[in-house]
Prior knowledge:
seven-stranded mixed beta sheet; four-stranded antiparallel beta sheet; globular
Amino acid sequence: VQLVESGGGLVQPGGSLSLSCAASGFTVTTYAISWFRRAPGKGREWVTTMTNTGSTVYADPVKGRFTISRDNAKNTVYLQMNNLKPEDTAVYYCRVNFVTTYYWGQGTQVTVSS
């Protein structure tokens, strides 16, 4: 099982970024996939989850600005982030939720700054 995030970078406040989480070793339609983030000096924070059936749920700080989606053919999950704020600066991780364990990606840095 492997998760590889990409798409992070530096963006100005109000801008957008799209993160990717490419999965291997399992099918993204079989298990729930989540995005988390860790801001400097803070603990890991849950951002959003898409279940195996495609249902989605979001943390309040990102609701209405972030969208999780997936491309079944590419076995990839995405996080579209709009209207970014400086407080969104963090390392973003994707995670697959198996029945008894989790697997994490290595993370991708998102910096929101003018």
